[in-house]
Amino acid sequence: MKILIVGTGYVGTTTGLIFCKMGHQVTGLDLDERKINALQAGKLYFYEPGLEDLLTKHVSAQNIRFTTDTENAVKENDVIFICVGTPLGPQGKADLTFVKNVAGTIGRYMNHYKVIVTKSTVPVGTAENVTNWIKENQPSSIPFDVVSNPEFLREGSALHDALNPDRIVIGASSDKARAVMRNLYKDFQCPIIETNPQASEMIKYAANSFLAMKISFINELARVCDALGINVNDISTGIGLDHRIGPHFLRAGMGFGGSCFPKDVNALIQTSKETGRPLSILEKVVQVNDEQQLYFMKKIRQVLGGNLENKTIAVLGLAFKANTDDTRESPSLILIEKLRGEQAAVQVHDPVVKSAGLMQFSKVEETVKGADAVILCTDWNDYKNLDWAALKPLMKQPVIFDGRNMLNKTKIEELGFRYLGVANH
Ligand code: NAD
Questions:
Q1: How far apart are alpha carbons 328 and 330 in whole angstroms?
Q2: Catalytic positions (predicted)?
Q3: Is 260 an active-site residue?
């Protein structure tokens, strides 16, 4: 089948390559010429482990090509995946500007029956909107179907996740489109949930909101544990082994960030409000998440003598989590802004993210030099394996704030550090 991927970001590029692997002919379309040129040259312009090898292989084999030529891309393909961004818009709603633009273009250039698939995370009712946006732009009436097929991959393990999904969700309203989608995913072993587009759209938001809720639960519980002198990591293990709860997304830390959770939780809150049945539980999830940063800041301030003015702070990690270069809504960047707001001098390091406007060093040794404290913000493996004994003499004061509870407290304290994790007693 000839597949068009519109939007060659983290999701679009991964999805396109997965379909190449399944034997399809794929075109990747983006407005950004820089990205298209890089991808067509077999170069991944973002950081995602393992993906560049697959890209190089399929570009060389001409199973995938990348273009900015919208008209031909739409005309030549049978199935069109919309993978553009759906960022946080005004009043917490998902901003569908990019999706609407793509739908309009598809309508304008449609030349025969096509299945249009929304893989972007879009609010309930968007399949219907996309249908209307396409129709409004069609010069003459050509039949088509719109299907919702949300994506659940995680940055950092995108390839593995896209190849081994827990489930595939297909929200179609016609048998013809459903048959096309079944055929596309026929080689996958996981359960396939077939439902209508609205339920499919809701599944994605419900999944992300539930995971965000687990994080806020353990973070708020961590504060209680802190007051009681309990190690919250033991609680995570103790409850996570219960199969009804599960161990994932139960690590206390600095709060969730990234390009999905904050915007998706907010968008579902807005959807719920529009129904007149607000999801108050999710409003709490957001509130707890915002407070977690403040809680962490308060600790840093207290330990450093109540004032951060002229203190030098080394921040390790800018990405919102390990194994990605994505800094959208990164807790680290939010913290850095707060630290600088309190007149601290901030020195930063990240193994892959290059920051503009921050004092960044390429080596951890340089970053911690003269620091009053180190804050671990991203759970990169590189940081777990640092030689802390060698770093200690470089610092002004041996203080570590572990925003990810990733270091072994006992070992670090044995080296003479003052160590503060998140209720990591
Ligand atoms: P991204 O920002 O990395 O990529 C989006 C791409 O779309 C950009 O390259 C942009 O240039 C392009 N684009 C915008 N308008 C276009 C147009 N009219 N024509 C062609 N290209 C256009 O975004 P992403 O992280 O891949 O996310 C895409 C969607 O998938 C979002 O809705 C997101 O919520 C969802 N999602 C993301 C992840 C993730 O981990 N990143 C996981 C699951 C779902």
A1: 5
A2: 260 (nucleophile)
A3: yes
Q: How far apart are the first and last CA of the chain?
A: 56
Q: pLDDT by residue (tens digit) across 132-156?
A: 999 999 999 999 999 999 999 999 9
CB distance 30 to ligand 1 below 6 Å: yes
Beta partners for 418?
A: 399
State the Cα torsion 58-259-320-326 to the nearest 10°: 40
- Does the annotation list 252 as a binding residue? yes
> Checking phi first, is residue 90 left (phi over 0); if not, alpha (psi -120 to 50) or beta?
beta
Binning pLDDT at 50, 70 and 90, where does residue 270 land? very high
Q: What letter does residue 111 receive in the DSSP assignment?
A: -
Q: Which residue's structure tokens are 């489930």?
A: 167
The phi and psi torsions of 29 (rounded to 5 degrees) equal: -120, 135
Q: Quickly count: other Cβ atoms within 10 Å of residue 170's Cβ.
A: 23
Q: Tens of pLDDT along 113-123?
A: 999 999 999 99
Rounded average pLDDT over 204-213:
98
**Distance between CA 377 and CA 339 in Å, rounded?**
13
pLDDT in tens, 370-415: 999 999 999 999 999 999 999 999 999 999 999 999 999 999 999 9
For residue 65, list its beta bridge partners: 27
Contact 86 CB / ligand 1 (< 6 Å): yes
Show the CA angle centred on residue 15, arms to residues 10 and 17, nearest 5°. 100
Cα–Cα distance measured from residue 414 to residue 22, given in angstroms and rounded to the nearest whole number: 52
Please tell me the distance from the alpha carbon of residue 313 to that of residue 359, in angstroms, as a whole number: 11
Cα–chain center distance at 245? 22
* Domains of the chain in sequence order: 2-195 (3.40.50.720), 208-420 (3.40.50.720)
Query: Which H/E stretch holds residue 401?
Result: strand 399-402
Compute CA 143 distance to the chain's CA centroid, rounded to the nearest angstrom.
35
Helical ranges in 256-380 per DSSP H = 261-274, 280-303, 331-341, 364-368
Rounded to two decimals, what is the model's pTM? 0.97
Question: Relative to the CA of 84, which ligand 1 atom is closest?
Answer: 7
12 CA closest ligand 1 atom index: 26
CA dihedral (223, 224, 228, 232) in degrees, to 10, reads -70
Known binder of ligand: residue 340? Answer: no
What are 132's two structure tokens?
């209307």
